[in-house]
Here is the input.
Amino acid sequence: MQWKNTKQEFGALAKFLHWTVAAAFIGAYVVVYYVIWFLDDSSPDSLPVLNIHWVLGIFVGVLVVPRLYWRLLNVQPEEAQTSQLEKRIAQAAHWGLYGLMILMPLTGYIGTDADTDFGLFKVPNFRETALFAWIEVTCGIGWEAFEPPVDAIHHLVGKWIAWPVVGLHIAAALFHHLVRRDKILVRMLPYSSTAGHS
Here is the structure.
């Protein structure tokens, strides 16, 4: 399998970034809903589990940068033979996903005042960074005023916007694969090639 994309299918790097980010994004949701449904999220006992959510969130935020760069740098496979309206909806959904992969990790990180422990190292929380110190001095806003609106955006988008956008993406992929029986899903599957597919 080649690393770069072609006009027919995605390359190995694009597939790796797509599925790794997707797994981390969905995994972060699974972890946080586990905390919400089965643990007391205000208890210190939930922090090790929440830390997994933070790790996965930072992972998504870091990987979206090379993923965007690779998308802009590389040729993209040809679009499906659909109407202009469907193409515009698909493009909007894709950029909506990229927006989520930026907004959710960003608001999650800057709205958390606990370090993220990766085991070998820790990422300091935003409250203790030089950037927040600058915001505090320049804007005259303390953590108690800064954190609630950021946290509100994170939860609002995560609860009411992210799932419909992700669900639409999955539904569209399955529609192309099961109903239209075209190459749209196959060309992004790991270890697969559109060669030989009709």
Summary: The chain has five helices and two strands. The chain has one domain: 12-188. The longest helix spans residues 143-180. The CA atoms of residues 27 and 130 lie 30 Å apart.
